[in-house]
Design a protein that fits this description.
This is Signal transduction histidine kinase. One of its GO terms (cellular component) is membrane. Keywords: Kinase, Membrane, Transferase, Transmembrane, Transmembrane helix, Two-component regulatory system. GO terms for molecular function: phosphorelay sensor kinase activity; protein dimerization activity. The structure is a single chain. The protein contains 13 helices and seven strands. With 394 residues, the protein is an alpha+beta fold. The chain folds into two domains: 166 residues; 148 residues, Histidine kinase-like ATPase, C-terminal domain (Heat Shock Protein 90). A five-stranded mixed beta sheet has the order 2-4-5-7-6. A two-stranded antiparallel ribbon has the order 1-3. β6 and β7 form a beta hairpin. The longest helix is centred in the middle third of the chain and has 69 residues. It starts with 5 loop residues before the first helix and ends in a 15-residue tail after the last helix.
């Protein structure tokens, strides 16, 4: 079946062809005695009527309406227009009498428009216009009016059909995505209610039991985190440029995905967060430095959360943990001691990129690092970011 918008057009074309074929027959019979060669014209009109009835099935759909049929159909219409100059008298032609196929010709042109769009309609209507001018032997006002009418109508319908087809494909794609999303959500619910809960229970029991069971619990926790990332739609790490990946913007999600584990939860948009390769690498390194601080100062049992937000004017990455927090004045003291992890590995990287890094911490309430990279800074061709500082962290 054709698309829902296209099928009514084919049905309307069938009705148009039948009605206009009947009109052409009636019109010829009414003026039979006024023709120069009435028998020749009658033979053509009879062929036109038989052809119309015999080919009704051809104009039921785009699949049946082949290019070969369209060519034969238009040839019949053009033959009738040119044959009018032989069958009719010059006086009748000059007075504006109808051609042998009359308005049936428009149906042939409209078939081209529905089948192939406005470009096919333009070719078919141009051929009809040329035949009309040859038959009339002059560019009279009525002739030009009819030619222009066929051009505008056929090309307009062809354009509408093309737009409708694109809309239909877009709608079909959207419905497929919606169906896939619903199925994924259903699977995610089933996995969450079963597998993830079992893995979480194995992790807790293993940690409580200690020994070899603790190792089993750790592995279960890692598998739980990987499975949770999969069902939540988080990205799978992409190959690096060294592995043959094509150059171009990098998806920040793929660089941050390896940091997810049983102790680190990654939340990212469902669509790619594209950044310049250098900016994506520096932002990812800043996140790694923040997570390193969590491991060093909050302990191995601390949990961290990474939140990626793709805003219209900036990319925002937040790293939060549930550790004891940073005592007041500790960062300043670390800088005085020459330990510039936060100052250089985090704030320095963002500063070089034209962004900002804000650190919020309260004793006993954990620490939050907010990394903000404006997109305006990425558009400007600024100096290359400073090399990553691999020194000690605060």
């Amino acid at each position: 079946m054709g698309m829902s918008v296209e099928q009514p057009l084919w049905r309307a074309l069938v009705a148009y062809r039948v009605l206009t074929a009947g009109y052409a027959v009636a019109l010829y019979c009414f003026s039979y005695d006024d023709r120069r060669h009435p028998l020749l014209g009658g033979a053509y009109v009879a062929v036109l009527a038989v052809w119309t009835l015999a080919t009704l099935g051809r104009v039921m759909s785009a699949r049946r309406c082949t290019v070969r049929f369209l060519t034969a159909d238009l040839t019949l219409a053009l033959t009738g227009i040119l044959l009018t100059a032989v069958v009719d008298t010059q006086a009748r032609i000059d007075s504006g009498s109808f051609t042998l196929p009359s308005i049936w010709t428009a149906g042939s042109v409209l078939a081209f428009a529905i089948k192939g769009g406005w470009r096919w309609a333009a070719v078919a209507s141009s051929l009809v216009a040329a035949a009309d001018l040859i038959e009339r032997r002059s560019a009279a006002r009525d002739t030009l009016h009819n030619v222009l009418l066929i051009w505008v109508a056929s090309m307009g319908i062809g354009y509408v059909v093309e737009v409708a087809r694109m809309s239909e494909r877009t709608l079909a794609r959207a419905l497929q995505i919606e169906a896939a999303t619903r199925e994924r959500e259903r699977l995610a619910r089933d996995i969450h209610d079963g597998v993830l809960q079992v893995l979480a229970m194995v992790q807790r029991r293993g940690n409580q039991a200690g020994g070899e069971a603790a190792e089993l619990g750790r592995m279960a926790g890692e598998q739980e985190a990987a499975l949770r990332t999969l069902v939540s739609g988080a990205p799978i790490p992409a190959p690096s440029a060294a592995d043959g990946a094509p150059p171009g913007p990098h998806d920040l999600r793929t660089l941050l995905a390896p940091y997810a584990s049983s102790r680190v939860t990654l939340s990212a948009p469902g669509t790619p967060v594209l950044l310049d390769p250098a900016a994506a690498a520096q932002l990812s390194a800043a996140v790694a430095a923040a997570l390193d601080n969590v491991r060093r100062h909050a302990g191995e049992r601390a949990h961290a959360w990474i939140l990626v937000e793709d805003e219209p004017d900036a990319v925002l990455v937040t790293v939060r943990d549930d550790g004891p927090g940073i005592p007041e004045g500790r960062l300043a003291a670390a800088a005085d001691e020459g330990r510039l992890g936060v100052a250089q590995s985090i704030r320095g990287r963002l500063r070089d990129l034209g962004g900002t890094a804000v650190l919020l911490s309260l004793p006993g309430q954990g620490t939050e690092v907010e990394l903000r990279l404006p997109r305006a800074a990425l558009v400007q061709d600024a100096a290359a970011p400073a090399a990553a500082n691999a020194g000690g962290t605060a």
